[in-house]
Specification:
- Strand 7 (about 205-210), helix 12 (about 215-220) and strand 8 (about 225-230) form a beta-alpha-beta unit.
- The protein has one domain (about 5-250): Phosphoenolpyruvate-binding domains (TIM Barrel, Alpha-Beta Barrel), CATH 3.20.20.60.
- It has an eight-stranded parallel beta barrel, surrounded by seven helices.
- Helix content is about 50%, strand content about 15%.
- The protein has about 250 residues and is α/β, with parallel strands linked by helices.
- It has helices spanning about 5-10, 25-35, 55-60, 75-85, 100-110, 120-125, 130-140, 150, 155-160, 170-175, 185-200, 215-220, 230-250; strands at about 15-20, 40, 65-70, 90, 140-145, 165-170, 205-210, 225-230.
- The structure holds 3-hydroxypyruvic acid and magnesium ion.
- Magnesium ion (MG) binds near residues 93, 146, 171 and 172.
Length: about 250
């Protein structure tokens, strides 16, 4: 089937993503049913290995959200494998140079546009009999902008043919530019504005991970097309802290 997220972004709606770091199929399934547009399985910082990926994608596909994956690195073999496993979008961490962006896109696309190897496996089950014909146009590649060099090259990275969007990793970005991660700072605010501008002037979508819902709301109001307010364990911890505070009254 076609990507509904692509259609929503094309219509100017901000899409909201969930993010799975726990490796629990039950959590992935529940988040898919919770109203998010996409659920990203995080193979970079998630507490599970590659063999858990397929059941997690199946769990997401049991609900209405689109199954996405953040890969652990920009290695082409892993990117090809998560696409074969059925990811509609791949979020590539640490895209710091235009060359890395070009290699990332090449890994996402079949020849003649790229170097993805044939073997669509689960992707063809989900995508249908015309998957091969549509894959190069449908698969979304999000390049993560999360370092000072990436920020310095953001316009050249945004000019990469075939890239779908830029996705900010605010924590790595904060550390790279020398400010404390995990809380809003003027430096990261300025970077968010810069990435948004670079993405939109190149015709790309702009997305970001966010440490809390209020930040996600703020970025959506600024024009971000995709916001991811927290991962599953952050949501659970926040709800646990809130519950304990009510119960204990402290
Ligand atoms: C970051 O903030 O660096 C991220 O990669 C978000 O997951
Ligand atoms: Mg990061």
């Amino acid at each position: 089937r076609n990507s509904r997220v692509r259609e929503a972004v094309a219509q100017g709606r901000t899409v909201v993503g969930a993010w799975v770091a726990t490796g629990s199929g039950y959590v992935a399934e529940s988040l898919s049913h919770a109203g998010y547009d996409a659920v990203t399985i995080d193979l970079q910082h998630g507490m599970f290995g590659f063999d858990t990926l397929v059941p997690l994608l199946q769990a997401v596909s049991a609900g209405p959200a689109e199954p996405w994956v953040r890969v652990p690195s920009l290695e082409a073999a892993t990117i090809g494998k998560v696409l074969d496993a059925g990811a509609y979008a791949v979020i590539g961490p640490g895209v710091d140079t235009p060359q890395q962006a070009a290699d990332f896109v090449a890994a996402l696309r079949y020849p003649p546009l790229g170097r993805r190897s044939y073997g669509p496996a689960r992707a063809a089950l989900q995508g249908g009999p015309d998957y091969l014909a549509r894959a190069n146009d449908e698969v979304m590649g999000w390049a993560m902008i999360e370092s000072a060099p990436a920020l310095a090259a953001v316009r050249e990275i945004a000019a990469t043919p075939g890239l779908y969007g830029l996705f900010v990793g605010p924590n790595d970005l904060a550390m790279s530019i020398g400010v404390e991660p995990g809380r809003p700072t003027p430096e990261v605010d300025a970077a968010w504005a810069e990435v948004l501008e670079a993405a939109h002037s190149a015709g790309l979508a702009a997305g970001s991970f966010c440490g809390d819902a209020a930040t996600a709301r703020r970025l959506a109001d600024q024009g971000y097309d995709l916001v991811v307010p927290m991962n599953d364990i952050m949501l659970l911890r926040a709800a646990a802290a809130e519950s304990l505070a009510v119960v204990r009254g402290d």
